[in-house]
Write a structure and sequence with these properties.
- The complex is a heterodimer of chains A (418) and B (80).
- Chain A has 418 residues and is α/β, with parallel strands linked by helices.
- Chain A folds into 3 domains: 4-70 and 109-208, 3-Layer(aba) Sandwich (Rossmann fold), CATH 3.40.50.1100; 80-106 and 212-382, Rossmann fold; 389-418, no CATH class.
- Chain A contains 16 helices and 13 strands.
- Chain A has helices at 37-40, 46-50, 84-90, 109-122, 135-147, 161-168, 181-194, 205-210, 213-222, 239-253, 274-281, 306-316, 325-339, 345-359, 382-385, 398-406, and strands at 4-9, 15-16, 31-35, 80-82, 94-99, 127-131, 150-156, 173-177, 198-199, 230-234, 263-269, 320-323, 368-373.
- In chain A, the strands form 3 sheets. In chain A, strands 4-5-13-10-11-12 form a 6-stranded mixed β-sheet, with helices on both faces. In chain A, strands 8-7-6-9 form a 4-stranded parallel β-sheet, sandwiched between helices.
- In chain A, β6, α5 and β7 (150-156) form a beta-alpha-beta unit.
- In chain A, α5 (135-147) packs parallel to α6 and α9 packs across α10.
- Chain A is globular.
- The model of chain A has no long low-confidence stretch (mean pLDDT 94).
- With 80 residues, chain B is of the alpha+beta class.
- Chain B is 29% helix and 39% strand.
- Chain B has helices at 19-27, 53-66, and strands spanning 2-10, 30-38, 43-51, 69-72.
- Chain B has a 4-stranded antiparallel β-sheet, covered by helices on one side.
- Chain B starts with a strand and ends in an 8-residue tail after the last strand.
- The chains are: A alpha/beta (418), B alpha+beta (80).
- At the A-B interface, α7 of A face β1, β2, β3 and β4 of B.
Amino acid sequence: MSFAKALRCRECGREYPLDPVHVCEFCFGPLEVTYDYDAMRGTVTRERIEKGPPTVWRYADLLPCDAEDAVDIGTGFTPLLKAERLAEELGLRRLYIKNDCANPTWSFKDRVVTIAATKAREFGFKTLACASTGNLANSVSAHAARAGLEAFVFIPSDLEQGKVVGSAIYGATLVAVDGSYDEVNRLCSELADRYRWAFVNINIRPYYAEGSKTLAFEVCEQLGWRAPDHCIVPLASGSLYVKIWKGLQELAKLWLVDSVHTRMSGAQAAGCSPIVTAWEAGTLNIRPVRPNTIAKSLAVGNPADGYYALRTFAESGGSAVAVSDEEVVGGMELLARSEGIFAETAGGVTIAGLKRLAEAGRVARDEVVVAFITGGGLKTQEAVMGSLKAPLQVEPHLASFERALSQREEQAPVSGSA
Amino acid sequence: MAKQRVKFTFPQELITLPIIYELGKQFSLVTNIRRADVTEDRGWVVLEVEGDLEEIERGLEWVAAKGVRVDPVSGDIVEG
């Protein structure tokens, strides 16, 4: 059962009923779900959770909706892998990879959308909607199909064909908006006011965002009910990072883990790093930027949760780091070659950020470190195409193979696009 | 009458200009500030504008053309 109690303004603290609203009517601050933690203590136990399904819904007691009504495509309980080869490369001893490529639409967005779709259906919406350049669009389309809801997905008109397919296949209506990134933002904000649709990251945002907490819950459970010493999280809107922290705090509040001493570090691509820039300047004020990076799934120039992410850096003692696009590609290749995980560009940001932090001594050698890989690499193949070697071309006889083998160091990079 | 909730982010050189006053006057809009943080080198204001829908759109375009960043109050909506 859900112990959600109310929505509370993160700015002025005013409370609202659990309705499809996202901003405080008084100060226009963002709303967040609050829970009755006193009632949860004693009821929500490790044993109860362990008896649940191998999905995010095993944590339904800590989410804002009930598992019985879930729009579930099998999201969550993704692998937490001890990354010994990568750890050795980075000079660490206890490094783990939380691999969210293993979700049904190959990204962590399934965690947030399963909650949003469930709430949308509970509220009686007939349409699920979002504006996205990739992962979110795929997940909304898939969940709408599963729930029998109509889906509207707004995309920039110059989006690559390959990214359109991953949403269109589920039967969603795709709307290509001919305008700048800012204009797409404005249009969707106006649409959310005008149409009675469940825009997952607008009017359903307080519930949607709660899904990210399940990453913290899973990691702690998979580590034997203990919080990691250090988390490395990619930053876009900052919501994922903030909610992992919230999830850790909740487990401690409910005595499911001992006190949380986790340092929360975050990484952005240098071409879109408003949170890192503010952190480096020692200010809580985010200056919006125009994104220019290959890490498109992190390209949020005006991050909704940037301010709260900066507060979490301060509370937890973590570090923020920005990496170049070359480092992003290097991070993707390093993870793939050392651990067999093909991450999208956001994963390259995480691994390149971790590498930088380890080199700078900001991640200690003996810490239990968890790096969050939030999406699969098949969606962003173009990022690494230019740096990978082409196949060996051989005639169907042994001499040709052996000649090619002896020349393999001279291979040209793969050309073409995804 | 239509309403829109927006966030204005001012660069340093525009902080001292009465842009919100001009927006209300030139486009016949009611501006209602709910939260703000303005210092000598930067500033942001969260407000609601109310009036004719076309005038709101024209007005917000005018503000953006002045060099002020105009965003929905909930930040970027387009996600990866």
